[in-house]
């Protein structure tokens, strides 16, 4: 039997070894070639891309300009905030650094945990140690922004404090500019803000003047530290930014607070969709206050400023539009106020349209047409003056009154009124628009017209930013480009008739519930039926109410409009008479009390019955001559100082009050006018509550009187 042949085991193993070796060698050569390709051939490109990713040229934000009120109070400013990070690499490299780190890391971790309250001390220690071991040059410790005082506190933490002088703590503060409003929500929408979830951008002055406020960006090289943090590249010489200019608004903080309080009170009573109030200085067109409030269940008060209805929400203006219509009629026909108009049963019928008065008025005078706000009377006068077909004249009058084109107001967008051109009118358009229907106007557009009536007929473009400054230098004077008519809107005769009628609205017409003020109010109510969303036409009982007017009646200083959309109530309880007119008066009353220049001079003589009583009062220097000379009381010379006036029967004793410079005066016992005069002359801001004389003040007399410091006074 043949012997079986054995396989060559050694040869098989050798072949397999060489095969494996060749494969390994091929892989090694391939990796070596790939490394050469990455490092040598494509290295410059990859390094360039890495530099572009982690070191790049970035814009350097300029310091944003401030926004001031008319008296220099800060409405919006930029404050530096700081994000805390550290460079753990400075705490490595030698035994001394290691020992220093071990001594202080526990104390630092505990301090960070106690300060931020978001991690335990152990978690902070682990986070820092891991970054240190991995050789990281930047670690964001916490994303919360710190103010300057918090920054100082962090520098007192263990490790940071001990290494402060040697600059070996590794602490890094990334500076971030944050916009801050010292007065909080006051004039929130008007001053504006930089970001908002609803608007997804800027609004108000911050938006419309963004270019001026933001200045010019600089540019420099920065190294990326993490997703949100960049650090200037050492050795780079950046192009420095140019700070933005400061804007000086026309807003009066005191009047703004009065307006916001009165609007809130009105909304709590009538619970409308929204409320608007604008106060304008008559002669200058400067907006002294502008407020919009709407229901907001997330706000502590239930209301907040979420949209600028005063500038952006256009409605049928209703009866406040009768004034420009009657101005056009008087200019065209020069009717006397005694001209009689037959309003019949209170219904005006033309084609398929019917317009009604709230009550039948019969035959009334032209003066009573405005005083009683007669739709029928207005339409008949317009029809008589302009007809129903040749109505281009009426349109041209409105154009002259600035009621057709946009106001081109400083806050953007500036809406254009909705008023069809005559070529598109039907037979009803002229008459319906004459009483404020089939048109759309914002409150500001209506206010600008009423302001012209108060301003002796001269139309002035509304203004809310008066100038831009850099330091003490005025770089832009916005009053220089403000539009001012060189001629009045109407004749002096027409103007006099209109002002008589507007005063009559308050003394004996639709707003006679607000008559009786010592300074006098003139104005016009407006109650327009609103269109209903999703429905055609108007619905009775669903109103947009307005009161537009001015005060004091004889020499107007302020013009104002108040509007409330869809106030809740029943029957006539939601007319302008009950809703907006009282709010107007509340605002006017409080402005009058605060404005020293509006106060009337005392005249007359003290009655004998009063001479027999005992009186005590803190006396303003300007009133001494009235009491002592005009009222026949004996005068004690006090060199124009404030005095404590004491009268018992006919004996007068005065004690001079010494007011130390740069200190808070004692105003207890003074009336509101005198207290405001004394405190505001010291540069203080005043918030007053109550009526009568001052019973207490929040800052004690004799305290340092820091400029713009807020003091509360209680009157009883």
Outline:
This protein is an alpha+beta fold. 32% of the residues lie in helices and 23% in strands.
Explain what the structure shows.
- With 716 residues, this protein is an alpha+beta fold.
- It has 21 helices and 26 strands.
- The strands form seven sheets. Strands 2, 3, 4, 5, 8, 16 and 17 form a seven-stranded mixed beta sheet that branches. A six-stranded antiparallel beta sheet has the order 11-10-9-20-19-18, with helices on both faces. A three-stranded antiparallel beta sheet has the order 1-6-7.
- Strand 10 (287-295) and strand 11 (303-304) form a beta hairpin.
- The longest helix is centred in the first third of the chain and has 33 residues, at 9-41.
- Residues 196-200 and 601-606 have low confidence and may be disordered.
- It comes from Aquirufa novilacunae.
- Residues 658-716 form the PASTA domain.
- This is Penicillin-binding protein.
